[in-house]
Design goal:
The chain is built from twelve helices and 47 strands. With about 775 residues, it is α+β, with helices and mostly antiparallel strands. The protein folds into three domains: about 280 residues, Alpha/Beta hydrolase fold, catalytic domain (Rossmann fold); about 160 residues, Beta Barrel (Lipocalin); about 160 residues, Methanol Dehydrogenase, Chain A, CATH 2.140.10. Strands 1-2-40-41-43-42-44-45-46-47 form a ten-stranded mixed beta sheet, with helices on both faces. Strands 17, 18, 19, 22 and 23 form a five-stranded antiparallel beta sheet that branches. A hairpin with a 2-residue loop joins strand 1 and strand 2. Helix 7 crosses helix 8. It is globular and about 75 Å long. This is Dipeptidyl-peptidase-4. Pfam families: DPPIV_N, Peptidase_S9. One of its GO terms (biological process) is proteolysis. InterPro entries: AB_hydrolase_fold, Peptidase_S9_cat, Peptidase_S9B_N, Serine_Prot_S9B/DPPIV.
Length: about 775
């Protein structure tokens, strides 16, 4: 399948190994001179103010039955009030109310006022983090007072507002501590709410009666929430599901016994150290045993589903009700993660019926819930079995598969199905892996896919589609253009209402000095084409030479070359161009670009080996093309997997990189978690040499340039242990380096007052001192 001409980037020129595409109209020298005379970015402005923060609409929900959508909006008198900041640096909104917009007329009406959101005996309304309607829209579930649990705010307080009576009550009862409930949801009839508290599932009726539905039995057992590794590597947190008839709840149970604890030590909060224990399965170690239970809302013993095989050598990354209340569909994946067996589990006795197998020679990348079609007669499957990531319609018994998205291109995401219109919506970008666009095809496979996103929206496009498929909230952004949010019709894509245009930020950005982004392609030594982007200083004088800063990730979990707004990071890159640096990034093979299965699987068994060669080849091609880039002043930086790649490049190619900033790297792959590392590097007893050669620490003797190593001591993901092991090896080798630990900061290095400003200010000073 090919895109219409309006979707293709215009090729400006091709020379040697590099082709460049424009992403914005060309600027004249006079334009650039005018911009140069205007505003300059500062770290303080980016990381300590809201001056360059993009706005987004308040939390929206579709009310399809009412032909409307709802949104959180500032209450009267608070429209211009800025959000506050809590102790973790997170925004706290001003008083808000919930409003509805009629999709036919766009008439606005207030559904829930601040008065209705104010608990009895209090003077101020609840600060709403999120909300959900019961199916009959007579009750509202409110999430507030949320707290961070590892990566997101998934634990907090829940309240129910009865819209018939106006009664507002808090869930959990008198035994519940503040901010202790997780993943609350209405039963299908709206008369009860289930939630997790202290790793057990509870059901609370409309009258306030609370029933405990599960029993842990020991600290090693957790019900209804995910283990650390499942949350991190399978992107799943909520661990229970109501049956469609509301009679049962299906849930995950994890037995973490035998999984060794990793200890996170906090030396600063108290007089003596405090320790947090996390069951964390490292490469080759014992993993949690998962099983599925189904329990009646009336209580009693669960019906257990226990798939065949050793549960310590398998995972259950997805589970959902199978289009009815009679069975659940679960996906059981082997530890190597190259075989996914789909089963139906009978709700009455837990017996299993095999349905379908999805299998790869190397590894499976992602696991997805299915969407049920025709009252459970068919379901969707996302698979790479054709060599490309496609969406299939599968018969209930698994015997018939129809490819709904045929062609030599990848689907990025299945967005929505609309059976009434025989429509399937998905995002893809067949001719440009840096972008994403919405496409529509038929659920019966009768028509070819057609692009829905208009050609005027080059870049990144994200859609939240209403249940009836007639409207969507469309988010559009580009690399240095903040997002705009629109209400649009489908499939025509007519704009009904601008929800947020970020016009003030766009105007502020238009005054900044600095070059516009360019996207390019380079060839590796074996002819493989890789994508990249570059930001340049304004008014580049080709008679001078400029330092080059490479931004890298390079692992299978992330793609850096995307034409989308990512906020602070790209603003900092922009700041560096104002200080005279060119900034570039290249996606080596193996990154999750939309380039087919072979591209994405090519690093299996040796993460860091071929990818570092690709990064070196890409750099050499870039330097050969642009004679104003100084090959003696090349720096590189990255975070997490990008921190690992930064180390690999400094250690393996010291002649090419003079400075590196490595944040939160995995210095030795054997230190990381089993699910991620074994998926891509293989099982350690089968790929032992790949683990050794792919790990930066193996090549530390090659360090010659300047290295700044940065790590948070409270990192629960890539442990501080990784930095300490590398430091120990560099000391043994008598290699000079610089090190900056952040006490108790987690993996992202964002939490804590002043953290980001200090982090990026330090990075800026380090480059100014050693690269410029």
């Amino acid at each position: 399948m090919s895109l219409p001409p309006t979707a293709r980037r215009m090729m400006l020129f091709s020379l040697g190994a590099i082709a460049l595409w424009a992403t914005a109209p060309a600027k004249t020298v006079a334009d650039e001179d005018a911009r140069q005379a205007n505003a300059m970015l500062t770290n303080e402005a980016i990381f300590s103010t809201e001056d360059y923060a993009a706005k987004e609409p308040g939390a929206t929900q579709w009310l399809t039955a009412d032909n409307a959508y709802t949104a959180l909006e500032p209450a009267p008198g608070h429209e211009e009030r800025e959000a506050g900041v809590d102790e973790n640096g997170e925004e706290t909104p001003p008083p808000q109310e919930i409003v509805a917009y009629d999709l036919a007329t766009l008439e606005r009406r207030v559904l829930v006022t601040t008065k209705q959101l104010t608990p009895e005996g209090r003077d101020s309304p609840l600060a709403v983090d999120d909300y959900a309607w019961s199916d009959d829209r007579r009750r509202l579930l409110i999430y507030t007072n949320s707290e961070q649990v590892w990566r997101v705010k998934s634990r907090g307080d829940y309240w129910v507002l009865n819209l018939d009576t106006g009664h507002l009550r808090q869930l959990g009862g008198t035994d519940a501590a503040p901010s202790s409930l997780q993943f609350a949801k209405f039963s299908p009839d709206g008369r009860a709410v289930a939630y997790v508290r202290d790793a057990d599932i509870f059901l609370e009726s409309d009258s306030g009666d609370i029933h405990k539905l599960t029993e842990r039995g020991s600290e090693a057992i957790i019900n209804g929430i995910m283990s650390w590794a499942y949350e991190e590597e399978f992107s799943i947190r909520d661990g229970f599901r109501f049956s469609p008839d509301g009679a049962r709840i299906a849930f995950w149970q994890f037995d973490t016994s035998g999984v060794r604890d990793f200890l996170i030590i906090d030396n600063t909060s108290e007089l003596y150290p405090t320790v947090t224990r996390i069951p964390y399965p490292k490469v080759g170690e014992t993993v949690s045993a998962a099983r599925i239970g189904m329990v009646s809302i009336e209580g009693g013993d669960p019906v257990w589903v226990e798939p065949p095989g050793d549960p310590r050598q398998h995972y259950i990354p997805r589970m959902q009700w199978a289009g009815s209340s009679d069975a659940v569909l679960l996906q059981q994946v082997n530890r190597r993660q190259n075989r996914n067996q789909f089963y139906y589990a009978d709700a009455s006795d837990g017996s299993l019926t095999p349905v379908l197998v999805d299998e790869e020679a190397t590894h499976l990348d992602d696991f997805h819930d299915v969407k049920w079609l025709q009252d459970g007669k068919f379901f969707t499957l996302i698979s790479e079995r054709s060599g490309w990531r496609h969406i299939y319609r599968v018969s209930r018994d698994g015997s018939s598969l129809v490819d709904l998205t045929p062609g030599d291109y990848d689907v990025d995401e299945l967005v929505a199905v609309n059976e009434a219109d025989n429509a399937l919506y998905f995002t893809a970008s067949p001719d440009d892996s840096a972008s994403r666009y919405l496409f529509r095809t038929t659920l019966d496979g009768s028509n070819e896919a057609a692009r829905i996103t208009p050609g005027s929206f080059s870049g990144d496009n994200v859609y939240d589609i209403a249940d009836d498929g007639q409207h969507a909230i469309h988010r559009h952004s580009r690399l240095l253009q903040p997002p705009q949010y629109r209400l649009v019709t489908l499939p025509g894509h007519a704009e009904r209402r601008m929800l947020e245009d970020n016009s003030a930020l766009r105007e502020r950005l238009s005054t900044l000095a600095g070059g516009d982004p360019e996207f390019f392609s380079v060839k590796a030594r074996d002819g493989l084409v890789m994508d990249g982007f570059m930001l340049r200083p304004a008014n580049v004088d080709r008679r001078q030479s400029y330092p080059l800063l490479m931004y890298v990730y390079g692992e299978v979990a992330g793609q850096t070359v995307r034409d989308r707004w990512v906020g602070d990071r790209n603003l900092w890159h922009w700041l560096m161009t104002q200080r005279g640096y060119a900034v570039a990034s290249i996606d080596n093979r193996g990154t999750p670009a939309l380039k087919g299965r072979d591209w994405r699987k090519s690093l299996y068994g040796g993460i860091g080996i071929l990818s570092s060669r690709d990064q070196y080849d890409g750099l050499q091609a870039l330097l050969a093309r642009h004679d104003y880039l100084d090959p003696e002043r090349v720096g590189i930086w990255g975070h997490s997997g990008g921190g690992s790649m930064t180390l690999n490049m400094l250690f393996r190619h010291p002649e090419a990189y003079s400075v590196g900033i490595s944040r939160a790297p995995v210095s030795d792959q054997r230190l990381y978690d089993a699910i991620y590392q074994e998926r891509y590097s293989g099982l350690p007893d089968e790929h032992a040499e790949g683990y050794v050669q792919g790990s930066p620490i193996t090549h530390a003797a090659g360090l010659e340039g300047k290295l700044l190593l940065i790590h948070g001591t409270g990192d629960d993901n890539v442990h501080y242990q990784s930095a300490e092991r590398l430091i120990d090896e560099l000391v043994r080798l008598n290699k000079p380096f610089d090190f900056l630990p952040y006490p108790n900061r987690r993996h992202a290095l964002t939490l804590g007052d002043g953290t980001e400003l200090h982090l990026y200010s330090t990075m800026t000073r380090y480059l100014e001192e050693h690269l410029k």
